[in-house]
Write a structure and sequence with these properties.
- The chain has one domain.
- By secondary structure, it is mostly beta strands.
- The protein is globular.
- The model has no long low-confidence stretch (mean pLDDT 90).
- The N and C termini lie far apart (51 Å).
- The protein has a three-stranded mixed β-sheet with strand order 1-8-9, with no helix packed on it.
- The protein has no helices and nine strands.
Length: 103
């Protein structure tokens, strides 16, 4: 059974060492953007072997970055995201902190 959902697409991924990356595109079913200091792609893992089926485009399944302006009830509301490389891991390049409510 396939479940079809409308979720933001991973438009481009610069983490070329990731097993899901083929030609700067992510081919995981869905990624999770993690919490912590960086909006890291929790699905990222390095491998010399990459997925063979390049027909599937990844989407953002969950987002734990509650301080991101695109986070709506732990899901991403951006139209699409970009994944960038930060040090030795992948981060959501679309992450944008919410505007401060203080004056």
């Amino acid at each position: 059974m396939k479940i079809t959902l409308e979720i933001p697409a991973v438009q481009e991924c610069e983490a070329t060492s990731c097993a899901y990356n083929v030609a700067h595109n992510c081919h995981a079913v869905a990624i999770t953007v993690g919490g912590g200091v960086h909006a890291a792609c929790d699905t990222f893992f390095t491998s010399d072997q990459h997925v063979r089926d390049g027909s599937q485009t990844a989407g953002v399944g969950a987002c734990k970055m509650t301080d991101c302006r695109y986070n709506a009830d732990l899901e991403c509301s951006a139209s699409a995201i970009r994944v960038d490389v930060h040090a030795t891991h992948a981060d959501c390049g679309t992450f944008t902190p919410r505007a401060s409510m203080s004056s």
